[in-house]
Design a protein that fits this description.
The protein is an all-alpha fold and about 170 residues long. It has 7 helices and no strands. Helix 4 packs parallel to helix 7. The protein is flat.
């Protein structure tokens, strides 16, 4: 008799936890949809409005739907395609360098056991908490003749993001 009661109680607890896990998952997806979908909805809605209406950001529907005209204007007059390819020319090499140097350093830091290596690791990841020294970095780029160039921007992004890259990859390797 006690075995049957214990089995029923366990089954009831199992059903409750499955329901609570389902409710938590539903709430998490709902919250994520609001956080991501809300701003995306406002951005598309604002892009769909004529210029006069788009000056004030609100969630009122547009009086005339001009999304395709606005996108065509951005692509023609705003050099949107050229901007997209320029972004690719900067981000792809910067991410490649981050992955290369970050993974090499992370492997050494994760496998090394010396105090000196540990100190170098903490110095390398201190950039996660400290803001990048933008003014001095731009001065160095200017002295090297890389200020305003794509290579200078690639090196700038690589240098400012390398500490978080090393931190995340070291945690993965460990």
């Amino acid at each position: 008799m006690t075995h049957t009661n214990s089995f029923r109680r366990q089954r009831l607890i199992s059903r409750r936890s499955a329901w609570t896990n389902g409710a938590r998952l539903f709430l998490l997806w709902g919250f994520t949809a609001l956080v991501v979908g809300g701003p995306l909805y406002v951005a598309v809605l604002t892009a769909s409005k004529p210029t006069a209406e788009a000056r004030t950001v609100n969630i009122n529907p547009p009086t005339s739907f001009v999304l395709l005209d606005n996108v065509a204007t951005v692509l023609d007059q705003g050099n949107g395609v050229q901007g997209f390819f320029n972004s690719l020319l900067i981000t792809v090499p910067a991410i490649t360098l981050l992955l290369l140097f970050g993974s090499l350093a992370a492997w050494v830091f994760a496998r090394g056991r010396s105090r000196t290596l540990n100190a170098v690791y903490y110095a390398a990841i201190s950039g996660v908490m400290l803001p990048p020294a933008i003014v001095s970095t731009l001065q160095v780029l200017s002295v090297l003749g890389l200020s305003g160039s794509r290579i200078g921007l690639i090196l700038f992004y690589t240098g400012t993001q390398l500490s978080i890259s090393i931190f995340l990859m070291t945690g993965f390797v460990k």
